[in-house]
Amino acid sequence: MNAQQSLLNRSRWKLWEPALWLLAFAVPMLLPSHALIINEIAIVALFAISLDLILGYTGIVSLGHAAFFGIGGYAAALFAKLVMPDPLVGLVVGIAVATLLGAVCSFTIMRGSDLTRLMVTLGVGLILLELANKFSELTGGSDGLQGVVMGPLLGHFEFDLAGRTAAFYSVTVLLALFVLMRRVVHSPFGATLTAIRDNRLRAMAIGIPVTSRLAVAYTLAAGVAGAAGALMTQTSGFASLDLFEFHRSADVLLILVIGGTGWLYGGVAGAIVFKLMQDALSAITPQYWTFWIGLFLVVLVLVGRERLIRPWTWFPRIFGGRKA
Questions:
Q1: How far apart are the C-alpha atoms of 189 and 102, rounded to whole Å?
Q2: Distance of CA 3 to CAs 7, 24, 188, 192, 262, Å?
Q3: What are the domain boundaries of the chain?
Q4: For a Cys staple, 208 with which of 24, 176, 203, 261, CB 3.0–4.6 Å?
Q5: Which of 3-7, 199-203, 223-227 has the highest mean pLDDT?
Q6: What DSSP assignment string belongs to 28-60?
Q7: Per-residue DSSP letter, 187
Q8: Cα–Cα distance between 125 and 68 in angstroms, integer?
Q9: Rg (Cα) of the chain, in Å, rounded?
């Protein structure tokens, strides 16, 4: 089987994928009281997918991915407050601003080691955090940008307190950008990203333009992260410095640890597990829910994702027998 046929086979939709997305659209109707958490899961999943493009498929580790999330969120919120409240136009504006920032920042990840990139990406996030705090007359500073009122979606669907419109809106955007990202990673361009991740020197030796590929992937990931940030501020009606905080970048890395990298559905699965655990544990133990998530991550790393999903495979290892 040649490389083109292999890419074609991987790009084909599996039978379970349409059923999964139909279920995602059905859940807000079947469980209307959980529409708000579904909206949050869709936003976090989109954010995780954007990071997976540069981490799982390209091998670029980032601790400042929240910079694009935050700039997209603030751009959409300011556009709604100062220009027009149309959510779709605001979403496009958020994506455009985050993409532009990603294109500028892509030059910072071309050189240096992984540790250098970690510090540089973290520095970008911290700089934007301080700028948002400094220009408080525009961003609201530590008090946040309040009074963000969104118009009805498509001119007919109002954003209600129950979050049903927000849930459908976020899931729809997630699906649209997921299809785009799926097409990218299963294209010849995506294959070159994987080659760069596995061995950059070999990729350069066979003629892959590594620098331009990294720049395009980083810019695309920034735009998708900006879309997630825009959805966050549009559906909550509020933008704050929390959008740029380090914990957002850390959380999305944890989500990919849970769901797996180099697989777009890993971001979706990780977001579902992480947000449901966070919601359930914070309701049971508001002060110590982070401890239990940390314990879960330790067990996940020690046992392994596959063995945690299939606990019956533990016993051969426990008793010294052959692995399942």
A1: 18
A2: 6, 33, 9, 12, 18
A3: 13-284
A4: 203
A5: 223-227
A6: HHH-GGGHHHHHHHHHHHHHHHHHHHHHTTT--
A7: S
A8: 8
A9: 20
DSSP 116-154: HHHHHHHHHHHHHHHHHHH-HHHH-GGG-B----PPPBT
pLDDT digits (tens, 9 = 90+) for 156-179: 778 877 778 888 999 999 999 999
Query: Where is pLDDT greater, at 98 or 16?
Result: 98
Beta carbons of 56 and 121 less than 8 angstroms apart: no
Cβ atoms of residues 193 and 57 within 8 Å: yes
User: pLDDT at residue 193 above 70?
Assistant: yes
The pLDDT score that the predictor gives to residue 319 is 41
227-254 pLDDT per residue, tens: 999 999 988 888 888 888 888 888 888 8
Topology given in CATH for the domain delimited by 13-284: ABC transporter involved in vitamin B12 uptake, BtuC (1.10.3470)
C-alpha–C-alpha distance, residues 183 and 269, integer Å: 19
Q: Are 267 and 260 in contact (CB under 8 A)?
A: no
196: amino acid identity, one letter: I
| Residue 75 tokens, joined | 């751009």
CA-CA distance, 156 to 268, in Å (whole number)?
A: 29
**Amino acid found at 283:** A
**Tokens representing residue 9 in the block:** 């086979």
